[in-house]
Each structure stands twice: as C-alpha cells, then as structure tokens.
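Translate sequence into structure tokens.
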Amino acid sequence: MKNFQWKSLLPHLIAIVVFALIAIIYCKPAFDGKVLQQSDVIHWKGMAQDLVKYKEKHGNYPLWNNNLFSGMPAYQVILETSNPITVGYFHPLFLLFLPKPVGYFFLLCISFYFLSQVLKVRPWLGILGSIAYAYSTFSEIIVSVGHDTQMLALGYVPALLAAVWLIYQKKYWWGAALTALFSCLLIAQNHLQITYYFLIVATFMSVGFIIQWIKAKEYKHLAIALSIAIVCGGIGAACNMVTLATTSDYSKATMRNGSLILDSTTASGTRKSSGLPIDYAFGWSYGRLETFTLLVPGIYGGGGSIKLPDNSAFVKKITEKGAPEDQALQMADQLGGFSYWGAQPFTSGPVYLGAVICLLFLFGMVYIKSPHKWWILAACVTAILMSWGKNFSAFNTFLFNYLPLYNKFRVPTMTLVIPQLLFPVVAILGLQQFLFDDTDKAEAFKKVKLTAYITGGLIALLGLIYISLDYAGINDAQLKNYFTQMMQGNAGESNSLYEAFKQDRQTIFGKDLIRTILLLLATLAVLWLFIKDKLKTNYALAALLLLSSLDVLTLGRRYLNENNFQDEADMNENYFKPSPAEASILKDTSYYRVLNLSGGIENVFNDALTSYHFHSVGGYHPAKLSIVEDLLNYQLRKQPINLKVLNMLNTKYIITADNNTHQYLPPNPDALGPVWFVKAIQFEKSPSEVMKGLNNFDPKDTALVEESYKPQLAASIQADSSATISLVNNDNDFIEYKSASKSNQFAVFSEIYYDRGWKAYIDGKESPIIPTNYVLRGMLIPEGNHKITFEFKPESFYNSSKAALIASALVWLLLIAAVIQSFRKEKQKA
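Result follows.
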C-alpha cells in the first residue's frame, strides 16, 4: 500500500459530493420536516398498523395480519428477522445515511458510478451516466407514488452487474465477494420483479461474454467465471432465505399461482394455471408508438400529474361558453389527468430516458468498436418488445407461457428499466472512446455524420407522427360523458369541448417535441465542434454533462417536486384520523369486521386505509390469496353483494357515503360472529361447486365442504341447541376458543383458511382444519367441554433462519478474503 496514490481518490470523492448535493437540492423539502405524500406508502401504513400495535404490546411483529382481507400472512407487509451478522448493515452506508428519498437517488447514482468505473471510463463520464440513470422519469414517478422497494432495488442493479463483470474480467476475489454482497442487498429490497429483470440483463451479458470466450478458446475461464457468478449469487440470495422462503411458500396460495375455480376442461382439485391471468398481467402495456416517450416525454400527454398547457384551448373554449375564468382554470386542473391518452388504463407519467442520452446511445451504437454493444442492443430491443405486452401479443404471449416465472409478474411497462440502465452504459462507453481513446478523427467524423443523418430521420418521423395522430384516447368515454353532462346533453357543444381538449394534448406533444429537437441539435453541435477541434475535450465533456443532467433533472421536476411533500402531522390528519362514523364504530371493542363502501364497491378491494383502524373485509395487496380473490370476483364484487357471505365474514359494520361524509349503518344483526356451530354439512364435488353453493345457502345452519374432506369428517354431528362455542382471545398468531356440547359438532371459524402454517389443537391435541365455505376454517369438535387453539407457525419462516445466518457469514468471509488478497498483491508488487 506504500505506492498507493491517495490523490487518485479525489475524483471519486468529488463524484460522491456531486451525487449528494444534487439529491439534497432535488429533495430539499425532506430536510424541512416534510415527508413524501406517497399513495402506496400511505396504504402500506394502513396495512401495517395492526402489526405495529402488536409489536408495541409484544415487542415483535406477528406473522399473521388480521386487518387485511379478513386475514393474511403479515410477513408480506412487514418481515422482521433476527440475524446479528447480516450484511444489511451496508445498506444505510450506501444511502450515505441520507433521509428518504434523498438517499434513494444517491444510491442509484453511486451504484451506477461503480459500474462506470468497472467499465473503465473517466470519472466525469461516470457522473454523467449516473445522473442519467438515477433521474430518468421512471425514478421520480415511482418515488412519488411510493414504490420504495422498487426504487431501492434499482439502486443495486448496476452495482451487481458491475460485480459480475469483475468476475468475467478474471478479478475473481473481488468479483465473487461483491456479487454475493450486492445480490444479497438487491434481493433484500423484496422487489422480485426488478431482480428478475436484472437476471434478464445478466443473461444477455453472459451470452455476450461466452461468445467471446469460445472464440478465444478460454474454456477454463468460462467454467470458472460462470461457476463463481452462480455460486456467489446463490449465497447472496440465501442471505434472504427467510424472505424468499416465505414469499415462495405464500405465492403458492395466491392469485399469482392461479385460481381454484375450475373450468370444464380442468381436473377437479387443480388450478387453472400456475400464474396470473394474462389479461390482468398485461393490464399496463406500453403502446408501440408510446415507446417514443423515451425521447419525447409528452407524446401521449405526459401522465396523470400533468396539467393542461398555459392558454389552454379547453379553457378558452369553456370561457367562450360563459364560464368564469377562475372556474375554467379550476376545471382544467381537475381534468389534467385526462391529458394522458395512451394505451395504458392510466399512468402517473412516461418513461423518459433523456433526449441527450438517447442520442448518445445512438451515437455509441454507431461508434463503439466493442462487441459488448450487441448484447446490450439485444437486451434493450427485447425489453422494449416486452413492454408492449398485449400490444405485441404474439411475442409476449409466448414469453408469458414459456419464459420461466414470467407469468408471476404484471405491468409489462416495467421492463423499460432495462434500457434505463443500458442506454447510459452505451452513452458513456461511446464518449470514452470518442473523447479520450481514439485518434482517427476522420473516421470519427463519419460516425458523427451518420448519427446526424439518423437523428434527422428521427426528427422527421416524429414530426410526421405529430401531424398524423388523432389525439383520441381509448379511455375517453368518461371524458366525453363529463362534457355531455356539462353541456346538458348538447352533443355539438360537448364535442367542441372535446376537440379543444384534444388540441391541448397536441400542444403538450408539440412543446416537448421542440424541447427534444433543441436538445438533440445541441448535443450534435457539441460532438461536431469537438471533432472539428473547435472545442477542447474538457469543455466538450462539461457541455455534454450539463446538457444531459439538465435534460433529465428539469423534466423530472414535473413528477417529483415540492407539491409531493407534506408535513407529516398534516398527512396523518388527512389520511388516518378516524371520521366521526369510524370513531363511533371504534367504541365497540368486540371482535368484528368492517366493510367500507364509502368509496364504491371497487375501492373496497384497493384501499388499505380502513385496515388502519379495523379488521377489514377489504384492503389492498398486489398478491392476494387466490381464494380471497375468487370470493371477491364471484360474490363481493357482484351486484347485489352477497349479504350471506358478509355475514359469515363477521361483517358487523358497513360504512357508506352520504353527501361526501362517512356514515355507518346500524350494526348488522345477522353477522355470525367469530365462530358458530352449524346444523349440517353440505358436501360439494369441487371448489367451483362450493363457490356456487355460496349463492344460495344459510351459513348459520349449513357448512359447505368439498367431498374430498369427507373421510376426515367420518364422525356424525347432531344438532344440539344448548351447544356453545365462543372466542376467548384472538392475538394474531394465537387464537383461543372454548366450547361445550352434548354431541359432536362442526364449528365454522370466521377466519381465512391458510394451510401453510396454521395448526389447530383441541385440548393440546392437533386436529385437522377443514376448508369451509370456500375461504373459512372448519373443525369437527367432539362432545364435552374443550379448549380449542390455533397457532400460526409457518415452517417457511422458522426453517429458513439458519440458512440465512450461514450465508451471511459466507459473504463476510468472502469480503475479508478479497481484502487479504488485495494486500497480498500489493506486497508482491512492492
């Protein structure tokens, strides 16, 4: 280490300071005592409150959540594990201990910067690429809506790619150690979809390297490198074994593993499919032309958070019809969400990679001599085609059916995180070669000219698109109906408002098109001035860094700005203070459930705010239990709602809306409580028959059970009017009941059936739990007085802790070994 040049650290320290300063300035309200107003995080707080209250009482989080969808595993909301040697201690360091969301943007920057240094580009080029990656609009959008785990996962993708690259470059020790470390941290964010997309990129990269190794006949290195990458990635994954095991176990019972409701061609007792329904999975598919938002953000209106332009044609038209200007402006703000008219149901904003980065990517593809550009191009093209989802159904349906695990995920547009990562990689590799490595200026000038010609063609194409689109969206029926009602049914008047609104959409596209053209021309000018020796290297680099950074930073402010922040006290007041109706219900301290219809029936199952205070029939979670999703689809979403199903779910209170205020109906006298004895068991052939039986049965007297469980119910039951069963205590993971009867009885428990951890005991002896009424638990209770207990102890949680501990130790050992190996090499050099 004697020969180490400490001055060599200066550029990297400058990079750290630059990344921190930009993030701090960009998210300044976070230092003013304000927090992000994130819809997903607000709903998460609703999901988690039952678990937080449990921890305040017991000192740890439970594994079962009583407040979501009548009950579901809590480790899908909060997972707390005990691992004293976890490498998760690195996570706050990589965030530079900065608050949310400042640390998020810093993480993306420093992670990409590490990748850039592994790729051996100049530090300032690394800064350029890092800012482009971190502040692409997708980042601001997911932060603004609260997809925190997605943002954090994106933070570790470049670093893990760099670690694998080190292995492939024969830097085995550090490559192995960092692959284990960063794979651990990536998976720890628990956003498996982003991890899946990383694996797609890593596969393309590995194929690219393998082709080179085979050509060079480096078969030994091929075997060593792939083995190290796979083993160390596996070690990193094993550090998260508790998360992976519980998620894998849970997924087998969720809507992502198909449904128990059968069609006529499916064998009884099996699922229709092993993944999501394809229509649901492809719900958010990018339009083909919408892909041009990578270059021009406003081509399809810019997203739900965009306001109509100044001097809006709609505002002019409505004021011409007599509306006061302030009222017209207010209406325009309310209708701003309809500015988006693309192929998706709705969106908060487009994926914009930056006009400058797009041009530099194009230039890099033309200019770079490295063979790596081809696997990068293949990965980007594949990702774009995947983002089209149902809009390129032949290709994507094939992937959905045959690509392993792909049918577990939804929102195809998310694949655009792949070009978000790889476009800046090509950009900085091209600039490194162009500005610093090559001396053949004549050849370079030809490449600049070719890039200019292609750019000119792109501008012409965009201009043609601008004048040829009709600016009518597939979801405009609601907008037209609104205008029709406003104009009291006058079709001509309402149509004139609609045409004005479409004109505003075109204006949004036009303004962003001009912005993009100016940025493209400015970038080409810098390249041309440099190649003509009219601009020195440092000035060219500074100009490109400034252009690229200002491009993404200013555009991103549309989606993340001061308006996204709010005082925490005000936010809690707005979202979590109980309404008068809720406060009245909270006075009832018995065990019951609540159905909140104040936002409409559909909102019941996309809203976790009710779960903040109550055991809710509804809730929000992206991976509901399949039996619950089936119950929603076949019984609770239909009109009229099946009241008997609500009764068996112990729905004591129903909240409605009246004149924009909450009120609740009188307590439901037919709610069956937490447990009851039935008079008879009605056996059905299949799960679908059980579901049909729910249409017309009396849950108080009859239990619906599949015939396959008949052997477990061999003992006959007899009606006993004096028999009693009651809840003693429900403490999430432990429930206790007491019963008394003169004959055998069948009890129905108003708790969601989940066979991956719940065990039942009668007087300490285990007894089988029978799936009843499709979603509930049932048990045969013998005559006499009994203590009945349920305990939730999922093996996936308890059996995976040791593996995580061992894997964490291995990561530390690899890091120590890498450091020792570095010292040895330095000594050998000395």
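Note: The two ends are 8 Å apart (CA to CA).
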